Structures are given as C-alpha cells and as structure tokens.
Amino acid sequence: PMGSFSTGGTGTGAGLGSQGALAMSQDGRHLVVVNPGSDDVTLFRSAGPGHLQLQDVAATGGQRPTSVAIHRDLVYALNADSDDLTGFRIVGSSLQPIGRFALSGSGVAAAQVGFDPQGGHVVVTERATNQILVFPVESDGSLGTPTASASVAPTPFGFQFGRTGTLVVSEAAGGQPGLSA
C-alpha cells in the first residue's frame, strides 16, 4: 500500500453492489470517490504517485451514491437508492452542481455509470429492468433524454468500452451461479 486518504465522507460498512465506486480522470489529475453513507462524493487532486490532496466534498442531493464517472471536467454520480444521477463540473478545486437526472423508474437497481470514450454520452446499467440507458451529454454538461436498450441477458451490471468504442457489458443472470456472461 502507498497510503490511505480520508474522503471526508462516510461509507455504509457494507458492499455497494455496483461497479465504479471511484474514477480517475484520463489525465490522472483528479480522482473522484463515492461516499454512500453520507450521500456525497469527494474530489481529490493527484499530487504525484501515492499522494492525493482532498479538494472538495459535494452532496449529491440523492441517496447512496455507489458509482461515479469522470470525463474531462464533468462528473456524474449514480445515486442507487434515489434512482437518479447527479452531475457536477470541476471548477478549480471544487465540484459545482449541474443537476439531477432521473433513471427509467423507481427501484431499478442501477449498477454503474460511465462516459463513452468521447464523453458525448453517459451510460447506466439497470439490473432490475434489464436495461442499459444512454443519455446524451448536452453542451452545458446536463443530460438529455435517455435511450433505453434491452440487455442481451438478464441483470446488466458492469461495463467497459473497448478500443473501437464497443460497449461490453457483464450480465449477472440474476445472481445465479455459473450463468453470468
């Protein structure tokens, strides 16, 4: 271990049931972390290998943030218990709120939020609805109306974009042993 750093927030003491509880900016300058027990996110600045400086702690306005994504100066946190996303813009050393954006409904059990490689879309997997939501990112950093796509198999969970921009999604098959894909 290179060290440990206080986030200025609290956890829940339990597993998050999500992917992406922390995210590093592509240039390596910023690290954003969820604090699901205090309903906020923490912004760190990288001060070299093994050194982080706490910059800001910002309330999401939602309940139990469990996943976070960053692209350039935009940050989106997934609030698992309030079924929404909270957007922020990094301005200097602070997180400035952009707004909150609803997922497809209530009790969707969202697992991960992330940006596409170009930062033009925000993607969310919803386990309970078996949907993948794709929100366009507007010029002001807010999110437009999402497009929902059915997952190929039940329980879309974590995801990653490949080198060619292809979205690859892991599917948990309702948690049944040996059936994940």
Overview of this structure, please?
- By secondary structure, the protein is mainly β.
- Helices cover 0% and strands 48% of the residues.
- The strands form four sheets. A four-stranded antiparallel sheet has the order 1-2-3-4, with no helix packed on it. It has a four-stranded antiparallel sheet with strand order 5-6-7-8, with no helix packed on it. Strands 9-10-11-12 form a four-stranded antiparallel sheet, with no helix packed on it.
- A hairpin with a 4-residue loop joins strand 2 and strand 3.
- The N and C termini lie far apart (32 Å).
- The model has no long low-confidence stretch (mean pLDDT 94).
Sequence-ordered SSE layout with sheet pairings:
Layout lengths: L21 E3 L5 E6 L4 E7 L5 E8 L5 E7 L2 E6 L4 E8 L2 E9 L7 E6 L5 E6 L4 E6 L10 E4 L5 E6 L5 E5 L10
Antiparallel strand pairs: 1-2, 2-3, 3-4, 5-6, 6-7, 7-8, 9-10, 10-11, 11-12, 13-14
